[in-house]
Write a structure and sequence with these properties.
The protein is built from 7 helices and 5 strands, in the order H-E-H-H-H-H-E-E-H-E-E-H. With about 180 residues, it is an alpha+beta fold. About 45% of the residues lie in helices and about 25% in strands. It is globular and about 45 Å long. A hairpin with a 2-residue loop joins strand 4 and strand 5. Helix 2 crosses helix 5 and helix 4 runs antiparallel to helix 5. The strands form 2 sheets. It has a 3-stranded antiparallel sheet, sandwiched between helices. The chain has a single domain, classed as 4'-phosphopantetheinyl transferase domain (Ribosomal Protein L22, Chain A, Alpha-Beta Complex), CATH 3.90.470.
Length: about 180
């Protein structure tokens, strides 16, 4: 790797270590499990996809709320930075959900900006089915972007170890895991 790719790799390694250290140090009540996912995205890749594919790209990956948030970025932040951080969050959520051989639609995972400026994670459809099967009861999300890189750390608190079944779906059928939107 060179340039931005090398930086992304270095940042990913640092974030993974920080997340593992933070989660490993949690004192969770008996029977509670924490799962963490980390991902980084080169902002220029998202900017390039927006320039090349426009709304088609944005609609495929981001919810209406996420696209709206990106239309009104905070001072000094571009739409590509905000969307890149949200895409990193989606990738990190998929790592936490650990589906076997498939992933929920990107729009089943959404990052919402609260009036306070903090973000919260919202899952729906098949992502919500996977989260329920894993016993996930709450999520924490942290997003950042700097120096051409966007990053996300996701922590999920589970009531019990994730259920596993045939194909890693937590025992759900294909139709059940796809959710009501198919």
């Amino acid at each position: 790797m060179t340039g931005a790719g090398e930086l992304v790799g270095e940042v990913a390694a640092e974030l993974a270590h920080a997340a593992a250290t933070a989660v490993g140090g949690l004192e969770a009540p008996s029977g509670v499990v924490c799962r963490a996912g980390v991902d980084v995205v080169a902002i220029d890749e998202v900017a390039g996809s927006l320039a090349t594919f426009g709304d088609r790209y944005a609609r495929r990956l981001f919810t209406e709320g996420e696209r709206e948030d990106s239309r009104w970025p905070s001072a000094g932040t571009s739409a590509a930075e905000g969307l890149a951080a949200r895409f990193a969050a989606k990738e990190a959520v998929v790592k936490v959900l650990a589906p076997d051989g498939w992933a929920p639609p990107w729009t089943d995972i959404a990052v919402r900006r609260l009036p306070s400026g903090q973000c919260e994670l919202e899952v729906s459809g098949s992502a919500a089915v996977l989260a329920t099967a894993a016993g996930i009861r709450s999520w924490a999300v942290s997003l950042t972007h700097h120096g051409g890189v966007a990053a996300a750390v996701i922590v999920a608190v589970c009531d019990a170890p994730p259920a596993t079944g045939e194909g890693g779906t937590g025992g759900w059928t294909d139709d059940e895991r796809r959710g009501p939107d198919g």
